[in-house]
Amino acid sequence: MKLYISVDMEGITGLVDPTFVDSRQYNYTRGQRIMTEEANHVIEAAFGEGCSEVVVNDSHSKMNNLLIEKLHPETQLITGDVKPLSMVQGLDSSFAGAAFLGYHTRAGRKGVLSHTMIFGVRNMYINGLEVGELGFNAMVAGYYGVPVLLVAGDDETALEAEALIPGVTTAVVKKRVSRTAALSLTPEKSGELLRQKTREALAGRSRVKPLIPPEKPVLSVEFANYGQAEWAHLIPGTSIDGGSPVVTFQAKDILEAYRAMIAMTELAMKAAFS
């Protein structure tokens, strides 16, 4: 049995503000260490439950945050960018399930460090359904027939996951106080919880169905300003709303929609906010 793990950073235990998740800031190295330890708890529990292979994808920012020298030695790590499928790079139909660690709520929602890909995205939709990173990534997993078994993050992230994926196991490692404050477990207690929840998720995997995406999805991204939308609209095949910063793309499948979203958000970061 193979397990795929996507590890973001904003939803990790004790990480509550940009100083922990921005490589230029003073708490970042602490964040890296806690992030790596958190991944190890799930990895070790997965191997203990009979997984034969665990692949971990570093899914935050430049995607080179996890300390490979500190990871479980049997782990395979996908690290660095550019990755065509970003946070779900390497995921395919050979996996029995996926786990999303360190995840957060989508843009504009309650939750610690909530956002969707970049801070210039207000909303993102697939066929009119509002999705964030969690939902979009779960749809890519569903394209391959892979169920998301475990989601770890704050309490608001758990609610978002449970609304999207019936039967998913969630691990709440911190409770939102505000967007940049939380009531957090200690890493030791969080580790105990993550090991327990990993065992529960793998034992109950038969009750979770993949989140199947629409066959020909329409991606719509609403940006914070029109300049960002203009940059995103440089992608062939997109259309732009003349009265609002919304860029739309008709994709042949969810993988093409996902790649278009990555390209849109990368281009949008070229626009100034002022």
From TrEMBL:
Keywords: Aminopeptidase, Hydrolase, Protease. Signal peptide: none annotated. Its EC number is 3.4.11.-. SUPFAM superfamilies: Dipeptide transport protein. It is an enzyme of class 3 (hydrolase). It holds the Pfam family Peptidase_M55. GO terms for molecular function: aminopeptidase activity. The keyword Hydrolase applies. The keyword Protease applies. This is D-aminopeptidase. It comes from Paenibacillus konkukensis.
